[in-house]
Amino acid sequence: MTASLAEFVDAHGRALVLIFLSFALAGLVFLFRLPIALFPETDFPRIVIIVDNGIQPVDVQMLTVTRPLEEAIRSVPGITDVRSITGRGSSEISVIFRWDVDILNALHLLQGKIAQIEPTLPPGARFDINRLTFFAFPMLGFSLTSPKRTQAELYDLAYNQLAPRLFRLPGVAEARITGGRPPEYHVLVEPEKLNSYGIPLTKVADAIRKTNLIGAAGMVQENYKLYLTTVTGLLKSKEQIEDVVVDVIKGTPVYVKNLARVVNGERPQYVVITADGRPATLINIHSQPDGNVVATADAVNKELDEIRKTLPPDIQLGIFYDQSFNVRDSISSVKDSILIGLALAVLVLIVFLKSWRTTLVAGLVIPIAVLIAVVFMKLFSMSFNVMTLGGIAACIGVVIDDAIVMVENIVVHLAQGQSPREAARSAIIELT
Questions:
Q1: DSSP state of 287
Q2: Which end of the chain has the least Cβ crowding within 10 Å, N or C?
Q3: Hey, is 231 helix, strand or coil?
Q4: Contact predicate 309/302, CB 8 Å
Q5: pLDDT at residue 41, as a whole number
Q6: β-strands 46-52, 90-97: how paired?
Q7: What is the pLDDT of residue 201?
Q8: pTM of the model
Q9: How many CB atoms lie within 10 A of CB 135?
Q10: Do residues 91 and 85 touch, judged by C-beta distance below 8 A?
Q11: Poorest-confidence range of 58-67, 97-106, 190-199, 419-428?
């Protein structure tokens, strides 16, 4: 085996050099096209279902939401375990599958089962279904705080001004807002007025819900043009809510303002989020699974610098997490490994062999090996992350060691009087 390998290398030396150089050039091209992330793209066999159902009591939440969902999803093939946590108005269900299950197909089947029973669930329940991946965690996060502004004002700033500017950046998948208090109107019904008209409370809620909508009204053709029309009843002010008709009694309309007071308010929040000791609104940036974390983080940070220039002086914008720092450190470590390893290899060969030609050949092995590895990373749809970069850094030491040993053995055979071709052949046979 070893002799045949030596003969093959001897017979096709120039072709092998051409192949390796071609791979190295391809690796140089792919080097700047591979995605960069903190962790590799991994599909864990777990899907998490989170249900928000307002302030429903725990026992009612368990009976009307958690248990029906558990019973429905149990029929999806490949499930090994279902775990749930039920709280006041919230359910978190973790569905765990076998590792050999196609998790994307399982996600679709799970969504189909939930859609089948959704009409039987509480109408106000909101679902969030996600498979567990490394990209489910934010890439970058920053906070908005102010000693003067209310939480509603900070949320309004984040939702209407900052998030839309960040959504449009390349590589950004989501700008998720947590904390703050979304502004809303509260309708405070007065029971004595309600009883005097003989109107049930549910009728007030139904009237507001049915009025606050927008829908298509059909098409209108005029002057050879086709117009799409909509009917909107969206309530945008306190006065519009007060003027909603709840019922008509003896020919006289009964308005919301006849039964209740409408006041400005904020959506209740049951989790306190702070930054720098103050209540804060947080914006977490999620990257695309195949995106470049470093490039996306640079674009987000550049946009945040522009945003800071337009913010009022009392609003502080602070970054509390940036995943790209870890990726940059890993890339820097690999660069250091290559440079330090190359320098040590050159030093060892120069001191002991005293041959610049031999040293140059051995030194070229390291960058060529790394570039060839990049080609195979591209073929297998891999990315630069802490694991692949760590693997490259570790293997550089092996490549350096093999190169030094091989060159040293060739020099030994040359000293014994063999020709360069014979010395290389003997070294390959011995070391293989």
A1: E
A2: N
A3: strand
A4: no
A5: 77
A6: antiparallel
A7: 87
A8: 0.70
A9: 23
A10: yes
A11: 419-428
Look up residue 136 and give its two tokens.
């489910």
Q: How many Å apart are CA 3 and CA 432, to the nearest integer? A: 9
The 10 Å CB-count burial string (b at 16+, else e) for 218-253 is eeeeeeeeeeeeeeeeebeeeebbbebebbeeeeee
197 Cβ contact list (under 8 Å, min separation 6):
247, 249, 254, 258, 259
- Across 71-85, 337-351, 385-399, which has the greatest mean pLDDT? 71-85
Q: Tell me the C-alpha distance between 383 and 331, whole Å.
A: 12
CB under 8 Å to 426, separation ≥6 — which residues? 409, 413, 418
Greatest extent of the chain over all pairs of C-alpha atoms, in Å:
120
Classify residue 15 as exposed, middle or buried by CB count within 10 Å of its CB (0-12, 13-18, 19+): exposed
DSSP string across 17-48: HHHHHHHHHHHHHHTTTS-B-SS-----SEEE
Q: What pLDDT, on a 0 to 100 scale, did the predictor assign at position 3?
A: 59
CA dihedral 13, 18, 19, 23 (to 10 degrees): 140
Q: What angle do CA 31, 37, 43 make, to 5 degrees?
A: 115
Q: Both tokens of residue 185?
A: 């109107």
Which amino acid type is present at position 323? Q
Q: What is the CA radius of gyration of the chain?
A: 33
Only one residue has tokens 């000791």, namely 277
Contact 17, 368 (CB under 8 A): no
Please count the residues of the chain: 432
Instruction: State CA 268 to chain mean position distance.
Output: 28
> What is the distance between the alpha carbons of residues 147 and 159, in angstroms, rounded to a whole number?
19
Token pair, residue 150, equals 């209310």
The CA distance from 38 to 252, in Å, is: 66
**How far apart (Å, rounded) are the C-alpha atoms in residues 424 and 17?**
15
Partner residues linked to 313 by β-bridges: none
Amino acid identity for residue 60 in this structure: V
Helix, strand, coil share of the chain (percent; to 5): 50, 25, 25
Is 125 in contact with 55 (CB distance < 8 Å)? no
User: Residues near 386 by Cβ (< 8 Å), separated by ≥ 6?
Assistant: 38, 39, 326, 327, 330
Q: What is the C-alpha to C-alpha distance for residues 170 and 298, in angstroms, rounded to an integer?
A: 11
